[in-house]
Write a structure and sequence with these properties.
The chain is of the alpha/beta class. Helix content is 28%, strand content 24%. The two termini are 16 Å apart.
């Protein structure tokens, strides 16, 4: 009988895990996507798309689909899904692993301000910034529209719908990761003095290297809190998790 694994996806780690597990003897792998992006990169194996209807909906799905173990590989800034997964797995009596890439760590020369929410970022920017690169994702732009004296360069993969009412802003649609040279050139071309981003970790860190070398400030949002669950910070660690039953 096949052992069915549910991967909660939406990250590069989820794609890599699904690819690594595809075709593994005795395993059936389903990746779940929230369905936010128009053309998501589809993982190997089976895919289901759309919310479950909260923790209770997820618990019902786990039972109906005969899931044996769950890996929460959602993006580090997916603030709710991990809590729903913990509650649903506890209710269904299933093992749960959190797969999350390491956060970026501050290095010598970094001019970072860590914040817990965007309101704190807005306050900091209001005191000292003039030209800001916002690399926060298109869902998180609204709080920054209050800063009418600041010029924003807004980088996102897809266009925000609707466009938030910024006083002075330019939209740049682009999908990373970007090279150090590309990031440095962009920051210089637009005379950026502050970069705002989330501590996503992973392959999009060249902007931080460029900001450090140019002496620019970075307002860095910390990751949201997560439930206490077993954790893996790499694909290899996830593959060694006993809940998969791979040995
Ligand atoms: P969230 O706050 O944790 O989740 C909000 C709701 O979206 C959940 O309650 C759930 O709906 C649904 N959902 C989230 N992940 C799901 C999944 N893998 N499969 C099925 N339903 C899911 O997450 P978010 O910040 O809105 O992000 C949505 C998705 O985009 C996540 O899967 C995440 O991995 C990905 N993503 C997020 C970011 C970010 O910065 N937030 C960046 C890149 C990718 P129900 O309650 O109805 O089940």
């Amino acid at each position: 009988m096949l052992r069915t694994i549910l991967i909660l996806g939406g990250s590069g780690e989820a794609l890599a895990l699904a690819a690594a597990l595809a075709g593994w003897p005795g395993l059936r792998v389903i990746t779940s996507l929230a369905g936010r992006t128009g053309q998501p990169r589809l993982p190997a194996g089976e895919v289901r798309i759309g919310g479950f209807g909260g923790a209770s909906g997820l618990a019902a799905y786990l039972r109906a689909a005969g899931i044996a173990a769950v890996i929460d590989a959602t993006h580090p800034f997916a603030a709710r899904m991990g809590w729903h997964a913990a509650e649903a797995c506890a209710a269904a009596g299933l093992p749960l692993l959190r797969l999350e890439r390491p956060a970026w760590a501050r290095r010598e020369g970094d001019l970072w301000d860590d914040v817990d929410d965007w309101d704190a970022a807005v306050t900091l920017l209001g005191h000292r910034s003039r030209r800001v690169l916002l690399a926060v994702g298109r869902q998180d732009l609204a709080p920054f529209t209050a800063l009418t004296d600041i010029w924003f360069l807004i980088r996102s993969v897809e266009a925000p719908q609707p466009w938030p009412p910024f006083a002075k802003a330019l939209s740049l649609l682009a999908k990373g990761p970007f090279s150090y040279d590309e990031e440095r050139a962009l920051l210089l071309e637009h005379g950026i003095d502050t970069l705002v981003c989330k501590n996503s970790g992973g392959p999009t860190g060249a902007k931080l290297d460029a900001a450090r070398d140019l002496g620019l400030r970075v307002v860095m949002r910390r990751r949201p809190s997560r439930p206490e669950t077993p954790r893996a910070s790499s694909l290899d660690q996830a593959l060694a998790w006993e809940g998969l039953g791979l040995s």
